[in-house]
Amino acid sequence: MPRSPEQNRAIREKRIQQILEAAVSVYRERGYHGAEMGAIARRAGLGRGLIYYYFKDKRDVFISLIRLTLQRWKDVVGEITRSEGSVTERLGRILKQTCALSLEHPDYSYFHQTISRDIKVLFPDREAEVNALYEESMWKPIRSLLREGVEKGELAVDPELGERFIFSVLFGAVNHENMIDKEKLDQWVTLALYGLVKNRNTDT
């Protein structure tokens, strides 16, 4: 009996996930240039030809990995930004959740921290596309929340400066060489937001 469209879709999604998980694992060990398609196929337990059935080339694999993981992060952040609570509370939840995800998925955190520095070199003809993914999924939600805080009079900071501050603090906390301990997340969030809060209300 032939498979239904739903079954084919499920198989496709499972194999794509399999390939992307293998790709991020090989990348962590060998870097981008060492993550050859054959190595990714072996790690995924699939034939090399099957990888090319789903992806045009290695760049397509890694741009797809960037797109998928950023979308997941955007979904998490979007749920928080649309939730009830002050801007400060929502910023705190975003910071804490992002760090928790980085601790839970260190390979993905390492991947974004390192590959984002080399977008221009690795994807010269798709640089604008990849940068747009980071802009839409990472920068824009935080920027919008900061502007909301300033407009409501809750945050006493220029939105652009606040954005740079938030991401500097965040990237420092999830640095793959010295990630913040899970037990210290609450204390870190309070410290990170202290200079942003107009009335020093540090409840998060």
From TrEMBL:
Keywords: DNA-binding, Transcription, Transcription regulation. Residues 13-73 form the HTH tetR-type domain. One of its GO terms (molecular function) is DNA-binding transcription factor activity. Residues 36-55 bind DNA. It comes from the Bacteria. The keyword DNA-binding applies. The keyword Membrane does not apply. PANTHER family: HTH-TYPE TRANSCRIPTIONAL REGULATOR BETI (PTHR30055:SF234), HTH-TYPE TRANSCRIPTIONAL REGULATOR RUTR (PTHR30055). This is TetR family transcriptional regulator. It comes from Melghirimyces profundicolus.
